[in-house]
Each structure stands twice: as C-alpha cells, then as structure tokens.
Design a protein that fits this description.
The complex is a heterodimer of chains A (about 290) and B (about 300). By secondary structure, chain A is mainly alpha-helical. Chain A is built from 11 helices and 2 strands; from the N terminus they run ααααββααααααα. Chain B has a domain of about 200 residues. Classes of the chains: A mainly alpha (about 290), B mainly alpha (about 300).
Chain lengths: ~290, ~300
Amino acid sequence: MIDFLQLIVSGTATGACYALAALGFTLLWQASGTINFALGEMVMLPAFIMLFFIGPAGLPLPLAFAATLLVSLLVLGLGFKRLVVDPMLKHGVIPLVIATLGLSIAMKQGVRIAFSAQVFTFPAIFSQELLSIGGARLSVSDLGTVIVAGGLVVALQTFLNRTLTGRAMQAVAQNRDAATVLGINVQRMVLYAFLINAALAATTALLVTPVYLAKFDMGDTLGLKAFYAAIIGGFNQSRGALLGGVLVGVLENLVGAYLSPGYKDGVALVLFLAVILFKPEGLLGKPEERKV
Amino acid sequence: MTRLWQAALLLFALVAIYLLPGTLKNYGVYIVTLWSVYVIAGMGLNLTVGYAGQISLGQAAFWGIGAYTTAIALKAGLPFFAALPLSAALCFGVGLLLGFPALRVQHHYLAFATLGFNVLVFLAFRNEDWLTGGTFGINNIPRPILFGWRLRAPLDFFHLTWIATVVMGALMALLLRSPWGRAFAALRDNPIRAESVGIDTTFYTLLAFAIGAAYAGVAGAFFAPLVGFIEPAPFAVTTSLSMLLMVIAGGSGRLFGPAIGAIVVVLLPEWLRFAAEWYLAIFGVLIVVMMVWLPGGLLSIPDRLRAARVLK
C-alpha cells in the first residue's frame, strides 16, 4: 500500500512534466493548427542552453534559467513562428508536420555536435531529502515538481479564462474570422501562444533534467509522452493536458512496477489508442465539427 | 508522339537503373537495393497520403510486420515466393483491422492512431522474444532461391528487388487509372463532394490504407533477406516519419514521387557523409528549407517553372 502511494506520487511528478510540454502542444494546435513534432527537442534545447549558462558562462542557476527563458522566447517562440510556421501555414498541415520533423532532427544533431553524445548531470533545484509522511517516504523533489507544474497549469488556466488577453486567445482558437471581426489582433494572439509554449518548454527542462539527465536525444521519449498526454486529455482543452499527463505518468509507474517493465510504455499507448478510436476529442475535449 | 517519347524515356531509365549498379562496389549495390525497397514502401504510403489524402505515421510498422513474417517463414523453411505473398496478405489484413476503427476519425487522428500503432508494434517486436528474438533479433536470414539458384551475390538480389519494384509500380499505375483510382483522387480533393456523388468514402479510404500497408509488407519481405539480420530498431516511428518525408519530398500524389523522395531519404545522407558528423544536422535543415520553399515536393518544380513562365 505504501509502495503504491510512493509510485502514485512519483508518477504524478513525472506526469506533471509531461503535462507542461503537452500544454504547449495543445496551445500551438489551438492557436495555429500546428502539429509540433519537435515538441521533445523544444525541451531538450533549453536544457542544454541552461547547461551552457551554468558551465562555460558560470552563472548561478536562477540567472541561468532567466537567460535561458529569454533565449527560448526569442528562438523557440518568435523565431519558430516567423521563420518556420508563418511561411508554411497556407500550404496546410502536412508540410508543416514534415518541417517540424526536420527541425527536430536539426536540433538534436546540432546539440550532439556542440555538446557530444554524452549524458550530462544537471544541478538539482529541490533538496534531495525524503519526507516521511505516515510511513510513506516521499521525495521533496517529486512534491516540488508537482507543486510548480500544477501551479503553472492553474496560473495559465486563470490567465486564459479570466483576463481579456486570455479570452481573446481563446476566441482566436475557436474562430479566427469572428475574432478578427471583433477587433482582436489575431497574429498577436497567435504569437502569445508561441511565446507561452516556449516558456513552458524552458520550465519543463528545468524540472525534468535534474531527474532524467541531459542528453541530445532526451526529447524523443518526452515528446512522445507529452503527445499522448495531449491527445488523451483532449486536444482542444488545456485542462485535458494536465489530466492526460498525470494519467500517463502514474500508469507508467504502476505498470512498470506491477505488470511488466517491458510494456511500461505500452499502457499509456493502449489508453491513447482507445481514446483516439472511441473518444477522439479526448477525455475532456469537445468534439470538432466537420466544416464544408 | 510525346507519349511515345515519355514511354521510351521511362523504359530507358528503368533499364539504366537495372544495369547501373553493375559498376558499383558491394556497399553501393546494397544502398541502391535499399533505395529500391524504400520505393516500394513509399508507393504504398503515397496511395494513402497522396491519393486518399490521409496522413499515416505507421508505414514502418507494416514494413516491420512484412520483414518479420518473411524472416520467420524463411527460417521455418518456407520458400521466399511463398513468404512474400504471406507478408503482403498479413499486412493487408492488419491494415484493414487498424483502418476500420481508425478511419472513422480521419485526418490528424488517423496520423495519431497509426503513430500509436507503430510504437505498439515496435514494443511487441522488442518484447516478444519467443517470436521475434527480442532485441537480439533474427539473424542468418537466407537469400531467396530462384530456379534452384540462390541469389547470394548482392547484384543478383538487387536485380530481383528492382524487377519487383517495377512490377509493383506498374500495378500501382494500373490501379490509379482504374475507376478505383479515380475514386481515391475524388476522395482526396473533396471528400464531401465525393460522398454526395455516391462514392462510399469509408470503404475506399480503408481500401487505400490496406493496399498501402500491403505494399509496405512487400517491401519488408525484400528488406529481411537484403540485410540478413533484423532487429526492432529499423521499424521505429522515426522510420515511418522518414517514409512520410520521402513521399512529401518527392511530391505526394505523383506516381514517381516516392522514387525521387527515396533518393532524398536513402541516398542524400550517404552523399552528405563528407560533412562527417554534420550531415544529419544539415539534412534536418534542408528538410525545413525545402518545406518552406517547395511544399509540393521536388516533382512540383516543372509545374512551378511553367507557372512562372506563363506569368511573364
């Protein structure tokens, strides 16, 4: 029972990180119809930028994170939108899918050249202690990750639902033409979505890398899991990403511990396939209507 | 007259490709054979993506099912020409089973469903040791025997593969000219209109998807004896993505698209090897640049030039 609780907590922590990356994915999809297959690499890159700022540049962690956040906003937010997505949007979804694919190869291999294919350790942001609560030993870093990630999701929800800008972003996601008629600056709202995605990716890197270590291909699994999380929860619902992420993280842990480590990755997958086949709009999503 | 010229040119190209690898060393012949295998799988994917207008990210899974089926059948002593149709039929069947529920949702959801399917198949290859040998894979896969003569030499095996590619290409061309092929195109261009003129869209999309899967099965059947050793790695999602890249880069919905696209995916990385460790990074950047400037693929260049001339 106590093992079970520990598995749930650490699974939730992992899942919260998937949820952050998934949230960025759904935001981009809603704002611009971009299916971003470079999702995992967009977490990997900030991790290495942070390592650069900590190592060769010698900055303390908080400053390094701030600098990384800035670079991410510029490169993964503004740069990605202006140079890759904008020129291609008029050609439909498929060329853009292929382009993000090319981007993920380029980012991965670029980092491999710059930093080598080694595994790098990353300074911990939480203390490494274990807390004893009712006999269960829970790690501070797991709890911290859940709190930070959960807080970010709640903050983002509040921003989207309660502020004028957030509601304008939602309007753009629902109906571009109507949003334009209402005097909303559509391009600016789309840009905000890209910037938020970049910021979420940098934060995910900060939370994930101390545990999973930095390697040029760390984005492969992370991207896939975040992708599952986004679909399971609901492609067009930001809340869904959180539910999906936590479900994937917890299920992985439970299956790995109790059923078969070989199929640890398989259960989230089966859930993912079941959702696609039977409730394609996701557990919390609304069905998309067919347009003529 | 122009049609005759086109036919002559095509025949010349096919014969040239048949003869050309005779001048290459063993590794070169291997790469060209691999290209040929990719072209078969790409033609199948092109039917799904380019003609039926669905995004599939699971072609490598079917490719793997074909390769493992052939490898297991060959090891069990079945002749290659029995294993080949078996692989194709199995992939066709699995394609129907996966496509039937998945195509209810269409478009990007089919992409996600096939991606999930690919990961699942990959996990099965890796974990079901009793059947697939797990991470150790299956080795010593024999080359086919033709008229009592084993095709051990790389060049002989290439010739067999290339003939199969041409036959599969011809079958595809026939299919596309048949009323079925027209229905596929109608489906891609405007599914709602196609439905309203009485085309059973679900049936045709499903058929296109399953035939595409069967092509991947055939490609897999040639891949297994080509490499002689198979393990799960080549059948991961990344390969499905490069197969999709291949179809788009060549020009989706064009018969010769996959042949050109396979050059980009199989041969270009070989040519970029002079750039040493940079080659994959350059490859990635080239893809992005190409999608920005030429979203219709390489075969859309003549159309683009013609359009530019008309505008002047």
